[in-house]
Amino acid sequence: MTATATSARSDLSELGRSETALRTFLHGLPGVDQVGAEQRAAQLGTRSIKTTAKAQAIDLAIRMVDLTTLEGADTPGKVRALATKALRPDPADPSCPHVGAVCVYPAMVPYVAEVLRGSGVHLASVATAFPSGQAPLDVKLADTRAAVEAGADEIDMVINRGAFLAGRYQEVYDEIVATKEACGDAHLKVILETGELATYDNVRRASWLAMLAGGDFIKTSTGKVPVAATPPVTLVMLEAVRDFRAATGRQVGVKPAGGIKTTKDAIKYLVMVNETVGADWLDPDWFRFGASSLLNDLLMQRTKLTTGVYAGPDYFTLD
């Protein structure tokens, strides 16, 4: 890290000590050009990838999937089956890579841990009163600690959107800091719930706030509100992590989640990553897809490329 980056990181770390300082910094960030962001995202979505490059992109996208089930009807049997699929997405093809992680509720973590232990597939758990985030801080932290103790090595927390939208940035910052501490060695993904933030400027501010507070990833959505991940929102978040690394020397990951269902969609996001932040983020350690149905479409397209024949949608297990 350069001396300039070290100094900048030290200066930015002081922001969390004062509500006024946080507000001044966040509202001093450059505004987002809404038209420009949407046009840029649309333009990147027109790029075409063929043959060998497409095959490589599909395998990379599979490795980036956080295979997710977050339903009230989840059972130990269901999440064990999901974890087994995460390890061998296509049992008929051992060359198919495993996914990045399995993401479940805290109560389901022990059952997934039984399957994934020692595999290299991460175990993510939502926490902090997901999806609303409306619970006392001590409850949120207990939720986090319980998930980590049960075997989660990644925690997906939700920010208090009510506090953020009311301008109580210090409260949001302090909750992220406390949750990061409760994670111990587990990585922390901070869910912004961008569909509730109303503006791209708020998305940029929330992204910076999450990173300043120590988040290892910033994530778009819970998947529980009508508007989830979109290309323009993800573009704004990618620009934020790029600028944050330039300012501090620390790299932060990005996870769009919700509504990404097809191989075509996934490849559009990979193009956006490459064109916006570069190859350093084209790695499951730094970019993930929060998804359930996406994996099956990736597997269908992969089978088509390798065999020349489309597999039917019932060829792979439903998640």
TrEMBL record:
SMART domains: DeoC. Keywords: Lyase, Schiff base. It is an enzyme of class 4 (lyase). It catalyses: 2-deoxy-D-ribose 5-phosphate = D-glyceraldehyde 3-phosphate + acetaldehyde. GO terms for molecular function: deoxyribose-phosphate aldolase activity. The keyword Zinc does not apply. InterPro entries: Aldolase_TIM, DeoC, DeoC/FbaB/LacD_aldolase. CDD domains: DeoC. It comes from the Bacteria. Pathway: Carbohydrate degradation; 2-deoxy-D-ribose 1-phosphate degradation; D-glyceraldehyde 3-phosphate and acetaldehyde from 2-deoxy-alpha-D-ribose 1-phosphate: step 2/2. Its EC number is 4.1.2.4. NCBIfam families: deoC. PANTHER family: DEOXYRIBOSE-PHOSPHATE ALDOLASE (PTHR10889:SF3). Belongs to the DeoC/FbaB aldolase family. DeoC type 2 subfamily. This is Deoxyribose-phosphate aldolase.
